[in-house]
């Protein structure tokens, strides 16, 4: 019993000593995201809206491969990225758009994350999420890389669906492997 109490006391002292120093934002952020299981790209993206775009692109890429499990993981990473945004680092326009889209984007990402095995439902939420991410990117919240706003006119019984992509080549997240190149670039972003 004494050994257990002594071990616990030493652990607490060691933990307190390790945490008493000044941490840089990158160290504490990496620790926090490692605990939540976010992907390497999301960890590196930081606490700005860059993390949202990075997680969104992971999600889009999983859907292009008809990979509902990785789409669910990316959806969960996106929820974490939305929660991790440092609102004080946003411009006035970014802050306004983020306030308008954050709750809906989080809800869509949660649905995608909780629906592994139901890729049709994931894609329905991805369609609505894509508009939120597009609005955020248009407000200047991107990764600093060139992005593209693509559209597939055949999705959803001909109603169409749009998405943000990091590649100029069409990789359709709505039709996946069935019609991977269906669509066209509608706008270059950044």
Automatic annotation (TrEMBL):
Keywords: Signal
PROSITE patterns found in the cross-reference section: PROKAR_LIPOPROTEIN
Residue ranges annotated for the DUF3347 domain, each copy included: 52-142
Pfam families named in the record: DUF3347
Secretion signal, residue range per the UniProt entry: 1-16
The protein's name: Uncharacterized protein DUF3347
Organism of derivation: Albibacterium bauzanense
